[in-house]
Every structure is written in C-alpha cells, then in structure tokens.
Amino acid sequence: MAQSNGKIKIQYYRSKIATPAKHKLVVKGLGFTRLGQIVEREDSESIRGMVKAVPHLVRIVE
Questions:
Q1: Which fold has domain 7-61?
Q2: Which of 33, 41, 51, 62 has the smallest number of Cβ neighbours within 10 A?
C-alpha cells in the first residue's frame, strides 16, 4: 500500500451526496473536488485516519 517515498495515492470513487456532513468534510479535507479523482498525499497517521473514516467513499490505489 504505502510507497517508498512516503506518499500514498487515494482515489475518490463513490459520491458523498447522501452521506453525513462530517464525511463530506473529510472528503474535502483530503483535497478531492470531483468523482474518480486520484490524489497523492503524505503517508501519515492523520491521512490514514481520514481514509479510515470514509472507506466507503475513498480507496488507496497502488
């Protein structure tokens, strides 16, 4: 999962429309602006926690 340079790639693959407000804020906090988008973030405990909070909306890609 984690890559050697300390970064992880996260994909936003399901819509946040019918989710609680806190989940919408987590998705926004990860930096997603559109569905299907892949972002690269630092592999830290806080980012991992955010991904763990919304596993039904985002996934870690290789």
A1: Ribosomal Protein L30; Chain: A, (3.30.1390)
A2: 62
